[in-house]
Amino acid sequence: ATLMTNHQHTALNMGFLTHPRPDGGAPRGEGFELRTDAHGVVRAGGGLLLTTQLRARAVAHHTDLPECAEQLSIAQQHHATFSHLARDHLAQESG
Fold this sequence. Notes:
By secondary structure, the chain is α+β, with helices and mostly antiparallel strands. The chain has one helix spanning 66-88, and strands at residues 2-5, 10-19, 26-35. It has one helix and three strands, in the order E-E-E-H. The protein has a three-stranded antiparallel beta sheet, with no helix packed on it.
């Protein structure tokens, strides 16, 4: 499916992506592409999540974020571990 305008070659392409050709489209991939030759803006007053985490078949509410919370928890643990190691090995400058 495609939603597009010729103005600045702006388009939202979804599904099986192809290059238009007279004898059928040349494969470009699957998923979606939002593109423009002009400027683009995303605004979300309630928040915006851009992630590469898979959520197969779009289960659960779109603002349910257990995958992100887990990644942040792991990052916090790594930060604490590296901070302690830096202090233990006197790699941390005072101040």
